[in-house]
Amino acid sequence: GAVVSQHPSWVICKSGTSVKIECRSLDFQATTMFWYRQFPKQSLMLMATSNEGSKATYEQGVEKDKFLINHASLTLSTLTVTSAHPEDSSFYICSARDRDRGTGELFFGEGSRLTVL
Amino acid sequence: RKEVEQDPGPFNVPEGATVAFNCTYSNSASQSFFWYRQDCRKEPKLLMSVYSSGNEDGRFTAQLNRASQYISLLIRDSKLSDSATYLCVADNAGNMLTFGGGTRLMVKP
C-alpha cells in the first residue's frame, strides 16, 4: 500500500529556532502534498497545499513566511517552521494522494509533534 | 458555521452495542466523502469511503444523503478496539479535503 513517511516524529526546540519537517511518499509519486496542523482535542486544519515544482498554496490565516514549504520532488515535501514560538507547538501532519490511484484516498504521514519551549 | 460538523461526543458505549455517528456538510459542491479513524496521538487512517447508495464493510455501514447534506456511520457489535476519534471528511474539489471536528468513541467492557 501507499506509505507516507514523516520525520522527525518528535522535536523539542527553543523559542526562536527553526524546525524542518520532512514528508516523503515512499512507494508512490505525489504531485500534491498537504500539510495539516492539529491542536489538542481539535480536528486537523489544513495549512497549505504543497505543489511539486511550484509555490505552495496557503490557507487563510497561515503565514507563508513563517511556514516555509518546499516540494522539490515528486516524493518529498518539507515544512520549515521559522522562528518557532510556544504557540507553534502542535501536531503537524502531512498527507498525499497517489496520483496513479483513482480512489481519492489520502495517505497520512505519522505526524510530527513539535514542542517549542 | 463549520463546513463539516460532527457531534464531538464522547460516545460511551458497552461492548457489543450499536452506535451511530452523524455528520453534516455545508458545501453542496462537495463530491466525495470519507470516514477516517484517528487514534490518540496518531495520524488519521481511512476507514471507508461513503457512496450515495450506502456501503458496508463488515461491522461498519456508511450512508450519504445528498439532499440533506448528511453522512452517517453505523458501527455494529462494538469492540474495545473501536475506541477512537472518527473524522468525517468532505472532498470539495479533488484536492481539498475538509475535516470535521471528529467524534470520540469510547467502548467499555
Describe this structure in words.
The complex is a heterodimer of chains A (117) and B (109). Chain A is globular and about 40 Å long. Helix content of chain A is 0%, strand content 50%. Chain A contains no helices and eleven strands. In chain A, the strands form two sheets. In chain A, strands 2, 4, 5, 6, 9, 10 and 11 form a seven-stranded mixed β-sheet that branches. In chain A, strands 1-3-8-7 form a four-stranded antiparallel β-sheet, with no helix packed on it. Chain B has strands spanning 4-6, 11-14, 19-25, 32-38, 45-50, 55-57, 60-65, 70-75, 84-91, 97-99, 103-108. In chain B, the strands form two sheets. In chain B, strands 2, 4, 5, 9, 10 and 11 form a six-stranded mixed β-sheet that branches. The mean pLDDT of chain B is 91. Chains A and B meet through β4 and β5 of A and β5 and β10 of B.
Task: Give short descriptive properties of this protein.
heterodimer, A: 117 residues, mainly beta, seven-stranded mixed beta sheet, four-stranded antiparallel beta sheet, globular, B: 109 residues, five-stranded antiparallel beta sheet, 0% helix
